[in-house]
Amino acid sequence: MPLTGVKNVVLVLSGKGGVGKSSVTLQLALALSLQGKSVGILDIDLTGPSMPRLVGLEDAKITQAPGGWMPVPVHEAESAAGADTSAPSTQPQRGSLRCMSLGFLLRDRGDAVIWRGPKKTAMIRQFLSDVFWGPTDYLLIDTPPGTSDEHIALAEQLLTLSTTDAAAVAQTGLPRLAGAVLVTTPQAVATSDVRKEANFCVKTNIPVLGVIENMSGYACPCCGEVSNLFSSGGGQVMAQELSLPFMGSVPIDVKFGELVEGNMEAGDSDEEEEDESPKTQSPDTPAEPDDRPLVERYRDTWSYPRFKGFGRTLISSIEGPTAV
């Protein structure tokens, strides 16, 4: 059965491009994983799949199994003691994280995807029916901007393969379409487009779990102090006017930007300079690369405490307050 093992499906939507849906999706996934939930990310931004780059696995490839396509593992589940066991612990365990994206199926990351609507629709249906997720507490779906073919196909397929009724989940065995998280930036040009996305959710009977105001100010990489370079509060005002839950605001976090970029520039040093003084380490020598998994390095960012709160809000609204 499609989506076998998936318990809850959460969409990440925005009518505006460039507001950070993919980064919000990834950070929600990491935060939920750090609270012991097994998480999957489905990237259906077919013409601009960015999730492989964000998780640092651009060279990974999809494998075929008897149950369907196997998503790419970002990290495995781990207990507080560091072993892959289910031994009881007073500390929350880290859940697994897996990812599926069209980017993993392209020969080269620079290849352009030039598809008409019917082919996009077919690809999304295949993603929802032919991927073997296994036991997954939350499947987060990263969507493209707008309310076009991809969104219509996604809504139609999900409303067929899942249920929005929590009481019917146990009876039918279908995953629960828990709802959508709307992402916006504070500017009026963004909130006006996100209002259309909220209207899309109303027309397709998809519950709105909350609104996140992304890029709300700038977090200093040294002290974490937030400065409002442009504006702030537009997403909260929009949520209040539409009677939607406001989850919170997220400033631009340089540490998270450095995290997803990784150590791409570490190998660009000049070999001639290294040969001149091979045994001398200058103050400008790059630090040793951090080999910890992405999820553990994410703990060091200024954004993590905020998304930890968002994750708890999602769990509470979907599973109930006692689940947090």
UniProtKB/TrEMBL annotation:
Protein name: Cytosolic Fe-S cluster assembly factor CFD1
GO molecular function term, any single one: 4 iron, 4 sulfur cluster binding
Basic and acidic residues composition-biased segments: 289-298
Entry keyword set: 4Fe-4S, ATP-binding, Cytoplasm, Iron, Iron-sulfur, Metal-binding, Nucleotide-binding
Pfam families: ParA
Biased composition (Acidic residues): 267-276
Sequence positions that bind ATP: 15-22
Function: Component of the cytosolic iron-sulfur (Fe/S) protein assembly (CIA) machinery. Required for maturation of extramitochondrial Fe-S proteins. The NBP35-CFD1 heterotetramer forms a Fe-S scaffold complex, mediating the de novo assembly of an Fe-S cluster and its transfer to target apoproteins.
Keyword 4Fe-4S among UniProt keywords: yes
Binding site for [4Fe-4S] cluster: 220, 223
Similarity field: Belongs to the Mrp/NBP35 ATP-binding proteins family. NUBP2/CFD1 subfamily.
UniProt keyword Nucleotide-binding, yes or no: yes
Gene3D superfamilies for this protein: P-loop containing nucleotide triphosphate hydrolases
Cellular component aspect of the GO annotation: cytosol
Region (Disordered): 264-298
